Structures are given as structure tokens and as C-alpha cells.
Amino acid sequence: MNIKLAIVFGMLAIGVISCNTPPAPALAKCTTPDMQPAAAVTSTAVFKAQAKILDSAAIDGYDANKVLAQDKGVVGGDFILSDCSEGLLRQVTSISTANVGVDARGIEKVYLNTSDASLEDVVTSGDVGLNYGALDFNQAVVVSALPGVQTRAVNGTIPFNGIKIPLGTASSLTVGGSITQALTPKFDLTFSGGKLQHFQIGLSGSFSATLEGKLVSGEKLTNAAKELTIADYKFTRAFLVGIVPVVVVIEPKLILGVGVGTNSALQMTAKISPTVNLNFNIEFTRSAKPQWKITPPTGSFSANPSFTVNTPDGGQVKTFAKLALGMKFYGIAGPEMTVKPFTLAKLSASDLSAGLNTGITVDGKVVAGFKVLGQGLEIASDSLSSTDLATNYKCTSTSCSILVSNPPTGPLR
User: Cα–Cα distances in Å, from 20 out to 3, 32, 203, 257, 368?
Assistant: First the structure.
């Protein structure tokens, strides 16, 4: 027994049996985003001398707290900006050369230990405008998609068919249709006195959808509501502001949703084909009380509804398709803008008709902690005031007639 113990202790001493902490996870490797043409940028920005550029080729790896890079003369206190992956904007807190060595080309490498930073840390003044360009889904990375979704657009259209959303124990809604969009996001930033004073995101262009919901209910349903993400995408684009890379990620999600309250078993179908040309913004303004808000959208809207039901009920059924555009700057999630066509059928309890409210909702929100552009922007907003462009109809199985409509042009209400 003593001999066996001696062997074990000896193996531990020389490291054959190790109780050491497992090695740290490997650093992530850089990918290089699509660089946008110079015409997509307007800028009068003035940058501080402590802003240092590291292109993705100079970085061997990174994590949340450090960057392994070629020695480019960066010192503690400097701010590094890079087009690496979703972009890096960090302040260097210290530098380590221990156990680093040189790369295959004989270039010395260093560990840059870093902390969070914001764009206003490196910009003293000036305006920056970024035109993101069209969101062509054929140029996006497809992150995920459900069966029934054609992820690649044909003439800008994404079709989806046979998407079934279970409701209750004996009920479901089957949704089909398509979304067509030619939307262009734009970003405007104004710096003064070393602070980001104003930040605006604009979304403009055309949007249309065909949305058909078929409800088969075998029971009474009370406030049955669900949302289902059917596809999500990712665009990663870099912009050179002078020599400084700004990386913006937009992550579109296609979401179907339903809300049902019925009094009995029934079958119902409602369909709309809305089209809208719109222009709306969400913006941050620094003032005595910094805040996010939506500026009043403008646009025009039309819809072509149809409706059938097999039995009077008195309940209501809402179906919607939502295009949600989540946005990141230097990998930090922040604003989200949504465009949501919907139909709300209020079923008659006395005959086979319904009041049909159809329209498009636009709204926005901001994720808490979004301060990579400047302090104060991290104020969360779960829902900025949303706006509907809607029309009310009286519908039977043969026709729909307009009851109330917003003006064809002007503010969305």
C-alpha cells in the first residue's frame, strides 16, 4: 500500500495526474465583415490621438477582456478600434508579453488587457452619417429557419407556407403568405464637447405582405396568444469613418403571432395583403433628461382583406407577421425597430360577419446597457410609443367594405 501511495504522489508531483485548473477557453478568431463603399459615409468627426486602429489581420484572437494582437505600439490608456468580427471598441488597461512570443512571420505579439469603451471616448466633435444600404436577404447569413420558409428572396419576397401554431388542446392556427421589403436603415450621430449629443436611426422604403390565417378551433379559447420566430438573418457591415472602422450588425427576424379569444368551436379564415411606403425614426437626444423616442412616422397604406367563418361566435382573432430589426454596434445590442402587418377579426355573435381591423404597426425599443456609442444611451425602453396605420372593415364571406380609414398619406396613427 505504501508503495502504491508513493507512486501516486510521485505522479502528481511530475504532473502525470493533474489537479490543475482546466486551461482557459481558446480565444475567438476574427472574421472580416463586408466593407461598405466610401459613398455610404459622411463625416466631419475629429478623433483623439489615443484612438488606435487594429485591422482584423493584426489580431490573433480575442475574448471579452483581452485581445492577442501584433505589437503596434499600443500603450495602456489607448483605445483600440477594429473591424474584427462584429467590431471591437475597447480601452487598453494593461499589456502583457509573457509567454506570447512571435507569430509565423516573426512579428512580436502582445496581450492587450481591455475594458469597455464608447465611441464618444475617441471622438471630440463632428457629425457622422452611415447609409446601411438595402437589406437584401440574399446577401445575409441565414441563422435559422423553420420548414416552410423559403429563406432566399425572389424579387425581394420571402414566402412561407403551412406554419402551424398550436393553440389549446384541440385548436391551431395555420399561417401562410409572404413578406416583401425594400427598407434602408440610416444612422446619424452628432458629437460635441466629447459627448454624443444626438443619435438617430431612420428606416425608410417599401414594405408589403400577404398574410392568411386559418383558425381551426375545437374548443373555447381564452386569451390564447403565441409568437413564433420562423426565420432570422444577420448582416455585418463595416464603414470607414476617416480611418476608423465602425461595424454595424443588423439581425432581422421574421415572427408570426396570434391572439385568440373564442366562445365556441369554429373555423375561420382571414387574409390581408397590405402595402406601405414609410419613413420613421427612433432617436436619442442628450438633454437635462436624456431620452429615447420615436418621431412621428409618415407613409401611405393600402390593404385587400377577405374573411370567412363557419359559425357566429362573438370572439376575436388577431394574426400578425413581424419584421424585427435588432441592431448592434461593435457587437453590443441596442435599438430594435419593427414593422408589423396585422389583422384583427371581431366576430359577430349573430351572423357570419366580422369587423376587420387591418393595418401595420411600427414601433421600437432599446436594450438596457447600450452605451457603446456614448454614456446615457443605456437607458432601456421596453417599448417606445408604437403607431398604427389601420383601416376598419365590415366583412362577410363575399366582401369587405371600409368603415374607417386613416388618411392615405400623412402621419401613421
Answer: 24, 36, 53, 50, 38
How far are the Cα atoms of 199, 307, 348, 360 from residue 214, in angstroms, in the given order?
Answer: 42, 10, 17, 20
3-state class (DSSP) for residue 14: helix
- 93-123 per-position pLDDT tens digit: 999 886 676 666 677 889 999 999 999 999 9
Distance CA(208)–CA(392), nearest Å, equals: 18
Provide the H-helix boundaries in 275-383: none
Main-chain dihedrals φ then ψ at residue 39, nearest 5 degrees:
-65, -15
C-alpha dihedral over 349, 353, 354, 358, to 10 degrees?
170
DSSP letter string over 92-142? EEEEE-TTT-B-TTS-BEEEEEEEE--GGGTEEEEEEEEE-----GGGSEE
Residue with cell 366582401: 399
Distance separating alpha carbons of residues 145 and 357, to the nearest angstrom: 29
Domain range list for the chain:
25-124, 128-405
pLDDT at residue 155 greater than cutoff 60? yes
Name the DSSP class of 312: -
pTM of the full structure: 0.88
* Closest C-alpha among 135, 69, 128, 83 to residue 247: 83
If phi > 0 it is left, if psi is from -120 to 50 it is alpha, else beta; for residue 138 that is alpha
Give Rg (Cα) of the chain.
27
Determine the distance from the C-alpha atom of residue 166 to the mean position of all C-alpha atoms in its chain, rounded to a whole number.
26
pLDDT exceeds 60 at position 408: no
* Cβ–Cβ < 8 Å for 166, 221: no
- Quick one: 389 exposed, middle or buried, by C-beta within 10 A (0-12, 13-18, 19+)? buried
Distance CA 113, CA 125 (A): 28
pLDDT for res 331 = 95
Q: Are 102 and 359 in contact (CB under 8 A)?
A: no
244 in Cβ contact with 155 (< 8 Å): no
Q: Is the pLDDT confidence value at 162 over 70?
A: yes
CA-based torsion, 331, 335, 341, 346: positive or negative: positive
- Residues facing residue 241 across a β-bridge: 244
